[in-house]
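Researcher: For the record, we're logging two predictions in this thread. I'll number them. Prediction 1 follows.
Model: Prediction 1, sequence and structure:
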Amino acid sequence: MSEKIATITLNRPEKLNAFTNTMLHEIIAALDLSDADDDVRAVIFTGAGRAFCAGADLSMGGETFSRGGSDVAGVKDIPRDGGGLVSLRIFESKKPVIGAINGPAVGVGVTMTLPMDIRLCSDTAKFGFVFARRGIITEACSSWFLPRVVGISRATEWVFTGRMILADEAKESGLVRNVFDSGELLAAARTLAREIAENTAPVSVALSRQMMWRMLGASHPMEAHRAESRGILQRGKSPDAREGVTSFLEKRAANFTMKVSTDTPNLFPEWQDPEFR
């Protein structure tokens, strides 16, 4: 970590950073550490070598996606999708997450990026929702995230065809925010992360992140109104709010002292369902 930015690198370059069970647990552990460390203000994901992530490790051949458990709908012993566990953990991050997608991102390699707040990519990046071409279905909660990111028509086209998507189309669709030369990508991601780290109250960013992502699934704007009313009430009385206004009036940089780990209120008490935690 440097400049209050944590960088998580997928590091199996000889295998194009293909996703494994070990990688799953290490990503979750890294996000647990970043959430607990108040010196971390933003998180960047990138890949080692020439790929971001080539998808699931297929070294088991035809049995790659065959696992234990019952296939009877509704039973509790159906194994959890590993990509989904990663996506849910990114979704629940208390720190903003930036994807610096430095090369091919296929299968879980692209679906794990969907709950990241901002995705940047290199001009060598390409993306593939190839599940139907492998005889499986979308995973990593992408049937929820992808239509919200690019719209239902584009999402269905990409999933139904399983074709590869180049960087320019990814930008035009909103899958990525911007495209950079390979040598400039990580610097651009760090510039964005520093802008967050140096200018904003960390608790405000954490709460705003929760509200915007969770409101994507809200049934009525009243749900946003309730959460925002709770947040305005609690944050408006906080030392951060006083510092934010005072520093503006005094024309100086703000010094926000409240900590995400201890000072973040729960604006969504109704979301605390232990069955899926």
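Researcher: Logged. Prediction 2.
Model: Prediction 2, sequence and structure:
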Amino acid sequence: MANAAVDARYETKPVLVTGASGYIGGRLVPRLLAAGYRVRCLAREPRKLDSRPWAADPRVDVVRCDVSDRQPLVDAMRGCGAAYYLVHSMMVAGPAYRERDRMLATTFAQAADAARLERIVYLGGLGETGEGLSEHLASRREVEEALGSGSVPVTVFRAAMIIGSGSASFEILRFLVERLPVMVTPRWVSTEAQPIAIGNVLHYLVVCLDCSASVGRTFDIGGADVMTYREIMQVMAAALGLRKRFIIPVPVLTPRLSSLWIHLVTPISHRIARPLAEGLRNRVVCRDDSARHLMPQRLLTIREAIDDALGNTQARDVETVWFDAGPMPGDPDWSGGKVFVDHRSTKVNAPPKAVYRAVSRIGGDQGYYASDWLWHVRGWLDRLVGGPGLRRGRRDPEQVSYGAALDFWRVTAVESDRRLELRAEMRLPGEALLSFEISSAEHGSGTSELIQTARFKPKGLMGLAYWFAVMPLHGLVFGGMLRGIRQAAERPA
């Protein structure tokens, strides 16, 4: 959409985007800017947006706000025209996500009334209406109703599987097909679905602002093809250059068992996999095509969408990933109680910038510079007990930013060329931090000092037992890591 086509109502009023640190929101903001809109992003932790290329755009205003706090939300909404509601609680609220999502949507509708917003845009889930919906799809319907409980009109888009590099649905599909030439699956592999490419979804979300006929409407949106999940898996196999997969559906696999299997084989947490797996039992096909008539575009086929997503993944051009919106913990309380510390340092014959660059590559495909087999064993053990393991990887192989996930770590502090701090999200009987501090050994000498510190605050006897069990391996793991980072920094470019 050209800038000249921007609806006059939004020429001076910014568009509010919630969930800007998430998968959809992080891709929506730059497309709104390209279409000529000003954007106000709400974020619980604004630092998570610092690394986004669009965050420095003068047309972007980032406001610290939690959507559960009504009055700050009203204040943040004032002066805006439209608002995108792209919030869900599956990653942060566990089994209680449904109730929390309903509460957040109700608060958002009340705040929108008080701030006199002109419209709300919501991306929900496609599926049949009435009885028999999975808990996940039923929750999406409840959010729609809660958002529509006020006087502000709501535009609802209902989508099935979204195919895009880094999306949870795409990653589940890719890893299952890559890793399992023979699959024993639930009966839902025979359910029909109408996936949609992420680019097609973003088109609808942006152009609806310039389509007055979309105000207050609900649209089913899907791609060009309708296929069973079994057929979609075979399309993925062909796109990956793999042989046809043998898929054996059985009636005894429950959503719980399916989600645990997805958790073990893919990078997706069982907390997210379960509602997604439950939703697969529902047929998710568009009941009408009014969206494509009102807001026309060329809809990609499933093969085209998968090829685009795989191309972006292979080119390491992934804008956002499903774990971008992971919750940021508060600062751990290291005062009081026993804290175990493994403190190591080394002199590096390289400037701080080179040392920081080596530190920043930790995790993902790079690994941990030493004893990677031990890290992989730890990752598998973490997956077995419900943790994220190593397969989550990292979105960018070179750059780190506040809030980014690196395998089973989360970046909790980052200062370019000086400091990186990681907090463990693996399942542990305690709290763990791993930090790196870099300084010039002697001014102008071109050498640096690298200090690596691991801290662990145990919880109960299990925490104490864990620390003393792994302590003999620290020389291999942490000592080897420090030496590997030093060698990588000293290696000529």
